[in-house]
Amino acid sequence: MSSKALEGINRRTFVKTVAGTLAAPAVGLLAEDARHKGSKSRPPNVIIMICDDIGSGDLHCYGSSLQTPNLDRMAAEGVRFTQFNTAHPICSASRAALLTGRYSSRNHTAGAYGPTSTDGTDLEEKTLADILKPAGFRSMAIGKWHLGFPPPYRQPTAALTPTWACPGALI
Predict the structure, then answer these.
(1) Residue 74's domain spans which residues?
(2) pLDDT for 12-64, tens place per residue?
(3) Same domain, yes or no, for 103 and 33?
(4) Of 28, 91, 101, 108, which is the most exposed, with the fewest CB atoms less than 10 Å away?
């Protein structure tokens, strides 16, 4: 791809493009299936799991002797991404980068937020949930949120409702 073709593309545009690319074929397939079954179509389920300190050999579907039947079933019925990079090696910053499509220096999440932190990920950030909501997706956060401890940062986007999340690693 030429550098001319990449002009005007930034992380936000990239996240929107990826979200649309992932959603469009699946929504189209569901709509086609619904026409044949006479049922209502709905967007596909998209589950993003962020697991701290998990290795590629820790799940049964990747060769571990540890039995993980529910995760194995999700892996068998869905799409597995086996080669990837993270935007940051620390949990808060890597979560924020995945949800916003922006490096930590852009979303104001430079490391990990602790219980005495007075701020969190920039409240003005647009997340994947914000981008997918107008397309009919419902989003939710479950588990370790870790994008800020004070109340305004515990759920930076209204698109992630309901939320059953612990603000950090105090579980």
Answers:
(1) 52-84
(2) 666 655 555 555 555 555 444 444 454 567 777 788 877 767 776 788 988 89
(3) yes
(4) 28
